[in-house]
Amino acid sequence: MKTTLFCFSGTGNSYYVAQTLATQLGDATVRMIPSLFTGEEIEMTEQVGFVFPTYKGFPPTLVKKFILKVFAKQDLSPIKYLFLINTRYKFPGYCMVAMHAMLREAGCLYSYANHVVMPDGYVPLLPVPSEKTMDTLYAKADEKLRTIAEDIRTEQFRLIPKVPFTRIAITHIMPVVHLASKDFAQQFSVLDSCISCTLCYRMCPSNNITMQEGKPVFSNNCTGCLGCYHRCPVQAITLQKKVHEGRYLNKRSGYSTEYWK
Predict the structure, then answer these.
(1) pLDDT tens profile 39-85
(2) Radius of gyration over every alpha carbon of the chain, rounded to an integer in angstroms
(3) DSSP assigned state of 102
(4) I want to staple 95 with a disulfide (CB 3.0 to 4.6 A). Which of 35, 54, 57, 117 is the partner?
């Protein structure tokens, strides 16, 4: 059975999960959500999955945009089994119930939902975990991914539990969170140590970066993934406000070296 995984990833966690599931499922294709806003017709397979992180308790802005503006306009009739895999650290928030509401609005219902705990890179709130903690989380994630892959292969049914105040969160809080993320990049500064490698420009999922005189300039269409901050090879991108120390990217994923060649 063919499977399509629609993936959004900032630090590489969700990319790693999507690629691992694709390998374990076989006959599966990973499609990155930022590359799907071209107006092309997207062929749906019998199995479709969404792999995505939690940002401030909700799905990333671009995931919402993709579901409501692109996915909803496709022929969804071939889909027989739809699943949701969320990568997060500590706080699930309203991410899954928001996905359920958006997919329902798009005309599709999910059959399976699960999450994978990964190291967190949101340094304005939490410190980057130690190498030992990361290794522990990676080992547990790999073990859980084997279980998830088997669940998907056998098309298990697994729904998320109800969460209090869901309607209020989705209709009133999520729009505010997404709107605030658009201006997040205004907190970035670029040091003179920038080497003009253009990696941040090439990998920005919301096309929020332009290169001017060899240095990145940030607009107000950020999605808050912090990918540019964590991936800068010389740590020339900094945050003006005080943050926790450390930079994080999922080095196993190949998201910087393979996907963004």
Answers:
(1) 888 999 999 999 999 999 999 999 999 999 999 999 999 999 999 99
(2) 18
(3) H
(4) 54
Terminal Cα distance for the chain, rounded: 30
Q: In this structure, are 194 and 156 located in the same domain? A: no
Residues 69 and 135 in one domain: yes
- pTM, rounded to two decimals: 0.94
Q: How many domains does the chain have?
A: 2
Amino acid at 90: K
Question: Can you tell me the distance from the alpha carbon of 82 to that of 255, in angstroms, rounded to the nearest whole number?
Answer: 25
Per-residue tokens: 148: 């998830």
User: In this structure, how many other beta carbons lie within 10 angstroms of the beta carbon of residue 46?
Assistant: 13
> At residue 77, what is the residue type?
S
Q: Kindly report, residue by residue over 173-185, the tens digit of the pLDDT.
A: 999 999 999 999 9
Cβ-contact 208, 222 below 8 angstroms: yes
Both 42 and 81 in one domain: the answer is: yes
